[in-house]
Structure prediction request, 236 residues.
Amino acid sequence: MRIDFVTLFPEMVLPALRHSILARAEQTGIVSFAATNPRDFATDAHRTVDGRPCGGGPGMVMRPDVVGRALESLDLMPGHRIVLTDPNGERFEQRHARDIASVDHLVILCGHYEGIDDRIRQRYASDVFSIGDFVLTGGEFPALLIADAVVRLLPGVLGDPDSLGADSHSDGLLSYPQFTLPREWEGFQVPAVLLSGDHGAIARWRRRHALISTRRQRPDLFCRARLSKSDVDLLQ
Ligand SMILES: C[S@@+](CC[C@H](N)C(=O)[O-])C[C@H]1O[C@@H](n2cnc3c(N)ncnc32)[C@H](O)[C@@H]1O
Prediction:
């Protein structure tokens, strides 16, 4: 997969991808990351990328002609997706990450100031995503978050692909709590069942705690979850 970030601040984005699992994914050729700066496509001496909002009001808006030229400079592959980061967008969720992970070319547009002139959304965006009900100064962190969620789903990126199935949100529930050694730390114990070697009992304990966490932390997800008869028994 190729991921292009269109950002006024490539130095906020590319270095963050050069670590750990994402860096390995790039080194092994599963993904490649690149950034394009709209400022390189400004035509005036000041390399202007923004203008005052039409109709008045505070702040500045990124110009569609400059951002459009930056987008047109990319060699878009067939089936590409162009994602706009925007607090007005649909809330980005795991199902979107799964959907996008199937394409070969992803472009993520990072807004700044009061955002990008809406004609860019109209002309180019295949998806408009918000990462939550709050406003950040720019789209760079949302873009990184979206890229990370997508890349870890690509085949070969995680050492043990089974960990995807155990993740929160993989089946509509949150994950169960995790423990490692030592068995006792500061008076807190690892639950005995996890050290028992009884795989059936461990699976039941994990499922029960996934159900309990989801019901407690995210009743909205719990209401939507499809529970089996054994799930109901586990909860009782
Ligand atoms: C300061 S924000 C613009 C906010 C805009 N004036 C509004 O009220 O909706 C600048 C840029 O940050 C990014 N951004 C900020 N918050 C975001 C969020 N919750 N989700 C996705 N992108 C966000 C977008 O790229 C946006 O264009």
About this structure: The chain has a mean pLDDT of 96. The first strand starts at residue 2 and ends at 6. The CA atoms of residues 66 and 72 lie 10 Å apart. The pocket of S-adenosylmethionine is lined by residues 85-88, 110-112, 114-116, 130-132, 134-139, 142 (CB under 6 Å).
